């Protein structure tokens, strides 16, 4: 099953890895010895113990049989599958999402995709459904829709979204999904707590082309910045760095069309999708 270079942060996967190491060491077995006994490769055992691979049901059952654990590994593996949708999230994103729900102000710049808080259900499904099982997709869609409720709850944060025009024109899920997505952006932009503007293609080069980021502000706590690099989430809290991102965001908004002009552009792009 899934393997990668960096360990999964999901608690269920980490717990399985720890249990395997504990049972193997208690039995006085090396990874190679256990692999040969069960008919797996030493590399596979190393990957699972490092929380870099998701163990299969058969592997869990084999471990339970060999170590006589009364189902410990099978229960752990079941928990992994039940929470697998969390395992594919970028490392660091879970902490960011917790902070996002507490923020009083959200300022975000998006280069290539519509921001998660603005995504329509069809767009979400197209994004999170890439190379994923149906059950996992449904859970991810439900969680993202739940996350979006911060914009419509009582006492919502003030949210400013600056999008590069490419985020509007990159066709995700087909023309119908994109038309629905752009209509959804326009509807959210009518809310008093939401501001949406667009940096048009004819701007040419500007600093936003370096990458997307989000600034979260809180009542009584310092601002933080979140970004993703090569699929890994990074939460920045050092005041000097955060202040630089605030300056950058203000600069990017200076490149964007005014809100009314941005709405006109969004409507124009939406009409192109038919």
From TrEMBL:
Spans traversing the lipid bilayer: none
Gene3D superfamilies referenced in this protein's UniProt entry, alphabetically: lambda repressor-like DNA-binding domains
Molecular function terms, GO-annotated: DNA binding
Residue ranges annotated for the HTH cro/C1-type domain, each copy included: 20-63
Name of the molecule in the record: XRE family transcriptional regulator
Lineage start: Bacteria, Bacillati, Actinomycetota, Actinomycetes, Streptosporangiales
